[in-house]
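call fold(seq) -> tokens
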Amino acid sequence: MEGPERPPGDGFLLDGDLSVRASGSAIAFGAARTVNLHTRQSTAGAPVRLDLRPVHVAGREPLLGELRDRLAKPRGVSTVALTGLGGVGKTTVALEYAHRHVDDYEVVWFFHAEHATTLLSQFHELAQLLGVAEDGDPVAAVHGALGRRTEPWLLVFDNLPGHAAAGTWLPAKGTGHVLVTTQDGHWPATQAIEVPTIGVDAAAGFLMDRTGSADESSARAVATALGLLPLALSQAAAFCETTGRTLDEYQALLASDRAELLKRGAPVSHAPLTATWSLAIGELEANSPGSVTLLRIAAYLAPEEIPFRLLFGGYPVLPDSGLDPDILKQVRDLCTQSFALDDAVSGLRRHSLIGPPSKTFGVHRLVQAVTCDGLGRAGQLWRDMAAALVEAAVPYETKMRSSWDVCRLLLPHIQTVADPLGDPMWRMSDFLGASGDYATARVQWQVIVEASTKHSGPEHPRTLEALSNVAFATVHAGDALSARDQFATLAPIVERVWGAESLNALAAKSNLANAIGQAGEPVAARDMCKELVSVYEAVAGATYPYALTVRADLAHWTGQAGNAPAAREMYVKLLPIRTEILGDEHPSILSDRAGLAYWTGRAGDAETARDMLTELLPIQAEVLGAEHPFTLNTLSTLAEWLGKSGDAAAARDLLMWLLPIRERVSGPDHPKSARDERRLAYWTKKAKRS
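ret:
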């Protein structure tokens, strides 16, 4: 585990004649002789009061280093507030820091700061040890004594209720450091450090160390399920230690009886997580009911990046029936009353029940769990409302790039709570394909397929359409062979359901033709497309949009089958017709322009191909995005024609820049990544020879 080595046990050593005061687990002393607390050497009149040093400190080295750097800045009294959710380990960090650096200070004093009366008595105690007259105000006496000292001092205020009360207790003058722990997220940013959860490696190691287990897999699973929260990890370890349960058994109990399990295993010095957060929620119910409404909705969403202003902004269009009237009124109030949403967010932040808010906020998964558990059977009503809010926020035109930022914010919440058969889920899946995230689109369409199959049957039109979209995403995700097989299975079913010459059946055959070509059979793809063009024109007319799409497919596979000049001429004839119907900046038109440039180059005119792609790129980047797979394809093709126009070094440099982006966007194993890697190797060799 991280942290310096310490003597075994939690004891302390005292030498000589010494007056000792004990308060709970804390020790206060002021002595005329040498005193040792672990590694502390104190001289006469140097008061030190610290709770016992934490035995286990895992994953906190970076935070302790940042804390030291922040306090060390020379600016009179240096104050740092460790803020964060109850149970995140603020007190452990503060105590570990104080024990590590106890020799750096003349005075070190740890205050239990939850209650004003207790805090006042601790100031009285410190004033006596400092030997200063109180005149009825021990706080002022201590502040004055510390302000006159030239040697550094450290005051720790543990669990101070809020920043508003800090001015009463924190000294303003002197050469000392003040360290505060608090759940109040409203602390000034210049002084605050938000204490995060610990990493999964440190969390799993902590569980294994505490329980003596060698089951790393279960340790990591438990740590992840507990959201890497230190107090929750400590409770889990204590429960296993005292009951003989294994980490694997604890994981199963979390799944089957989470609410009761989280009440158990808390250290003697700390209330269980459920009690800690229930107190905060109870205070909010009395003083900020809008905060509780917001928290209950957030409890059913994905824990990260909750777009609260998007969900509650304006007057969301919610169903007229099926939602609980009382909950609906609470939500309407948040949406429509001036500053209601701001006040709700502020209340949650005051208790660090949410992370620092911007356009979004995060909620720890265990806070969500405790909130849901506390709702009992009413939880389903709140979940329904959360789903309705998320679904109402999904843009209608999700294939347009202007909606993609909103869609990305909503995606994890749609995946968490939305109806898989609902239109919003369908539109979000469309967004994934249009934006180029084919791997996620494939997974999402498969979820819809399974739900639709269960609800409506395997040959229902929506099921078949979703299956087609799975296969479409599969081919673009780089698995052409699987996509070919999927389309081959689907095409005869579609033909049987809708008829051999139905538009749906023709679309299924067209998709199959493209998948066959992608799988390495361009001649077969060309021949299928040629036949389909005739059927489409007979059934729907020569200018029917999908008939023109198949013409574009035919041009592509004609080139891939070895006839680049013919492919170029097909694009030349097709492009103005499609442009008139779809518009200059439709993604299909941009694809056609890229195809025309490519086959122009393949037909022997590299310079024209280069110039056409150079003109196309900024438009494509604007319409689809600079990192859309189609834009990356155009960049890769431009590199090819740059090289073949005589500038091998430019081709090499462009591919060197492109390849890591391609691998990040499409994956290192995607065929397009492999192709770009081959192109880079080729033009690197060419550039060396030139």
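Residues 32 and 44 are 4 Å apart (CA to CA).
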